[in-house]
Amino acid sequence: MEKSILFLQKTIGEKAVSREELDQLKEAVEAFDEEWFEYEESEDRFYLNPEILGYKKRPQEDFEALGLGELEERIVDVLEQGKSVKWGKLALAMWLFFLFIVVYTVVETIF
Question: In whole angstroms, what is the distance from residue 91 CA to residue 18 CA?
Answer without folding.
Answer: 68
